[in-house]
């Protein structure tokens, strides 16, 4: 038997016309609010041990370390300094129609433009209120895990980078018209039951919350927000339905295949896009209810969690995970394919401009090699085929120092905003992108959630779980689920093979082609920590060495 509570609180935002986070478009501004945005929370503890776990999911495009640290600070003021922060999981729906400007780092704030203190306060306040409600409502309940697959004919999701996906040796050779099969079509749920009745649930399914495009002007929870609202109405009372993300990195809610752009243009106005988002959310809600109805595994056992922070900017990756010697990561870099955007969900610069920038990026690399023969080999080894547009470590754009971007300010609004922040002294001493990342594993009896920052592609997520499965089985864990967009945001994680395609996802895989291997290695180290008695753990030093 468990003690479980749930709650939700609205993220109350001022309508000031700030650009929303997700599409990276300064014109994608919020002047209205179409739906409420929520923080949804669960508190769970096992009746025997009393150990507690807290889960909070935000209707936002990202979670940042700044959000997490401010929430922890508030919670410690309530609970005392001995609060174990590893037992807090903070994640999000990844709606692209939500607030931004809540990061320490420069670039993920740029479009808003800049840091917006009122957004951070609103988000953290709502998360705190939702957790307070959840804690106050804790009462005896049963926790059941279940899953339900979407039929192949259900138009809920498509792989948007099929060419990259097909590079993986373990994937079927799906045709261009079979992109809907090239993803994990399974909805996983935790059903909370009292006296046999479903009263609340948590669901994981990986698909981008991008049904609503970047031409609209209102805050909106998008597909996962509509799914949650539908089930909360069905269940009634104070029910909470939490819809979080799995391996969504290369998964779109829009059709991808022959005639994809023409089909996307059929959603030609706000009414059509909102209808499409509601329909996608309805499909997810139906699948979640089916998974809850079929849930046959009653969870019992320990509640546990471990968390470590790892600097991904300078890692050596062992041959065991990389498949070859001398694999490494490097300071973050964004490729030209990143600013080119995705073909349907969110286009960036024109293909013609991207074609022009690629040789400029290669010229900048050649100049860097001549100038820094010692440092270049590591960057080249990590970043490989990427045509680097922004070198966050060197703080350069196409080889030009960010302090010298004034001449670009007239050509691009984001360049103008970066120039303004540089001139105002707001960039001095601040990183452009995150490099120290949180890795977390939470345990609910025989089930573990692997909680990763950023956006994992379908096969990257699959490989991570395959790596961890035997390691976690040693401490009695039988089932693993991947939850992404957790505790920090840092772009994408692709497989090595997908990275070579340099589609959008590879261009936004900032630490280079061995990023997934680095995650595999350091999550294994964290799994070894989970296997230790609580008094013997040292999360801060969860380094990849064999357990004693």
Describe this structure as you would to a colleague.
With 548 residues, the protein is an alpha+beta fold. It has two domains: 2-307 and 435-534, no CATH class; 402-431, no CATH class. It contains 15 helices and 25 strands. The protein has helices at residues 65-79, 117-136, 162-165, 222-235, 260-265, 270-293, 319-322, 336-340, 351-371, 376-383, 413-423, 458-473, 496-501, 504-507, 515-531, and strands at 2-10, 32-33, 38-46, 52-58, 88-92, 139-149, 158-159, 186-194, 197-204, 218-219, 241-244, 251-252, 297-298, 303-311, 316-317, 327-328, 333-335, 388-391, 396-397, 400-401, 436-444, 447-451, 455-456, 479-483, 492-493. The strands form seven sheets. Strands 1, 3, 4, 5, 6, 8, 9, 11 and 13 form a nine-stranded mixed sheet that branches. A four-stranded mixed sheet has the order 14-21-22-24, covered by helices on one side. Strands 17-18-19-20 form a four-stranded antiparallel sheet. 55% of the residues are buried.
Present the secondary structure layout:
Blueprint lengths: L1 E9 L21 E2 L4 E9 L5 E7 L6 H15 L8 E5 L24 H20 L2 E11 L8 E2 L2 H4 L20 E9 L2 E8 L13 E2 L2 H14 L5 E4 L6 E2 L7 H6 L4 H24 L3 E2 L4 E9 L4 E2 L1 H4 L4 E2 L4 E3 H5 L10 H21 L4 H8 L4 E4 L4 E2 L2 E2 L11 H11 L12 E9 L2 E5 L3 E2 L1 H16 L5 E5 L8 E2 L2 H6 L2 H4 L7 H17 L17
Parallel strand pairs: 2-10, 4-5, 9-11, 22-24, 23-25
Antiparallel strand pairs: 1-3, 1-6, 3-4, 6-8, 6-13, 7-12, 8-9, 14-21, 15-16, 17-18, 18-19, 19-20, 21-22
Helix pairs in contact: 1-2, 4-6, 12-15
């Amino acid at each position: 038997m468990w003690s479980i509570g749930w709650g939700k609180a609205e993220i109350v935002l001022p309508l000031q016309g700030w650009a929303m986070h997700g599409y990276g478009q300064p014109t994608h501004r919020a002047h209205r609010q179409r739906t409420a945005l929520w923080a949804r929370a669960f508190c769970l503890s096992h009746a025997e041990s009393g150990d507690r776990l807290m889960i909070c999911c935000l209707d936002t495009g990202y979670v940042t370390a700044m959000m997490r640290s401010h929430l922890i600070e508030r919670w410690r003021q309530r609970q005392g300094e001995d609060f174990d922060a590893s037992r807090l999981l903070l994640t999000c729906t990844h709606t692209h129609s939500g607030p931004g400007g809540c990061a320490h780092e420069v670039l993920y704030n740029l479009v808003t433009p800049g840091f917006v203190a009122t957004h951070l306060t609103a988000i953290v306040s709502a998360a705190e209120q939702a957790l307070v409600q959840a804690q106050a409502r804790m009462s005896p309940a049963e926790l059941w895990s279940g899953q339900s697959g979407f039929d192949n004919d259900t138009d809920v999701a498509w792989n948007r980078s099929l060419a990259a996906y097909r590079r993986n040796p373990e994937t079927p050779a799906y045709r261009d018209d079979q992109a809907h099969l090239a993803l994990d079509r399974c909805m996983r749920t935790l059903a909370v039951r009292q006296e046999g009745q479903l009263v609340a649930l948590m669901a994981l399914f990986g698909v981008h919350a991008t049904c609503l495009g970047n031409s609209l002007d209102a805050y909106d929870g998008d597909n996962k927000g509509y799914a949650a609202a539908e089930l909360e109405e069905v269940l009634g009372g104070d029910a909470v339905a939490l819809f979080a993300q799995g391996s969504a990195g290369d998964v779109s809610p829009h059709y991808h295949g022959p005639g994809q752009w023409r089909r996307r243009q059929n959603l030609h106005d706000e009414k059509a896009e909102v209808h499409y988002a509601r329909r996608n959310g309805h499909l997810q809600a139906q699948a979640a209810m089916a998974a809850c109805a079929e849930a046959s595994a009653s969870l019992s056992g320990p509640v546990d969690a471990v968390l470590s922070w790892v600097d991904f900017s300078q890692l050596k990756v062992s041959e065991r995970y990389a498949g070859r010697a001398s694999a490494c990561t490097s300071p973050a870099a964004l490729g030209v394919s990143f600013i080119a955007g995705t073909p349907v969900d969110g286009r960036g610069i024109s293909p013609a401009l991207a074609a022009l920038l690629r040789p400029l990026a290669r010229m900048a690399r050649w100049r860097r090699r001549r100038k820094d023969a010692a440092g270049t080999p590591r960057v080249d080894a990590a970043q490989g085929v990427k045509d680097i547009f922004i070198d966050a470590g060197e703080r350069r754009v196409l080889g030009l120092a960010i302090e010298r971007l004034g001449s670009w300010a007239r050509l691009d609004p984001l360049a103008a905003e970066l120039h303004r922040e540089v001139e105002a002294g707001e960039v001095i001493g601040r990183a452009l992108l995150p490099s120290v990342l949180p890795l977390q594993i939470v345990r609910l009896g025989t089930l573990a959630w692997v909680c990763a920052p950023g956006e994992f592609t379908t096969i990257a997520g699959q490989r991570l779980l395959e790596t961890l499965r035997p390691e976690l089985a040693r401490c009695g864990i039988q089932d693993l689920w991947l939850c992404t967009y957790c505790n920090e945001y840092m772009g994408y994680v692709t497989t090595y093979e997908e990275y070579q395609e340099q589609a959008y996802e590879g261009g936004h895989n900032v630490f280079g082609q061995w990023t997934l291997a680095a995650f595999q290695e350091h999550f294994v180290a964290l799994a070894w920590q989970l296997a230790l008695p609580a008094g013997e753990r040292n999360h801060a030093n969860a380094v990849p060495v064999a357990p004693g």
